[in-house]
Amino acid sequence: MDQGKWKAIGDQLLESVKDRFPSHTEYGSTIDHGRYAYLANIHWKLNTDKNRPNKTSRIILIVISGEAIEDSDYDKRCNLVQERFKKFISEKMKYFNAEHGESYGKVPPVEEWYVDTGTLNF
């Protein structure tokens, strides 16, 4: 499967979970050839610090392995794969703390959520 197809599948999976995040969330995605993976970065403004109105949340970096995408047989099983992905994201969000103590002007901490073949396919 070509990596353009990975990007399309990863973007569809990301779209399927956008309702799990705040409405003002910002999303970005790419293929990381070095990691052989689809990457999605997710963050939003916290609006919890009057002195820092543009303070953003911790960054969530979702890493979906290329192997997981290829093993998913997504074209035939997209509904099942999306449901498994939604369950994974919902579980992660239960314990995610968007707040952080990183000082002004620094990049917020990154929390990496790795999606492997077992997450999407078993």
- The amount of beta strand, in percent, is 15-25%
Taking pLDDT < 50 over at least 5 consecutive residues as the criterion, the unreliable ranges are none
Number of strands: 4
SS-based class: alpha+beta
CA(first)-CA(last) distance: 20 Å
N to C succession of SSEs: HEEEHHEH
Number of contiguous helices? 4
Fill in the keyword field for this structure.
122 residues; alpha+beta; 4-stranded mixed beta sheet; 39% helix; 22% strand
Please provide a written account of the structure:
The chain is α+β, with helices and mostly antiparallel strands. It has one domain (3-121). 39% of the residues lie in helices and 22% in strands. It has helices at 3-16, 66-71, 74-95, 117-121; strands spanning 26-32, 37-43, 59-65, 110-115. Strands 1-2-3-4 form a 4-stranded mixed sheet. Helix 1 packs across helix 3. The radius of gyration is 15 Å and the shape is elongated. The chain starts with a helix and ends with a helix.
Short description:
With 122 residues, the protein is an alpha+beta fold.
How do the helices and strands line up, and which of them pair or pack?
Elements (H helix, E strand, L loop, with lengths): L2 H14 L9 E7 L4 E7 L15 E7 H6 L2 H22 L14 E6 L1 H5 L1
Parallel strand pairs: 3-4
Antiparallel strand pairs: 1-2, 2-3
Helix pairs in contact: 1-3
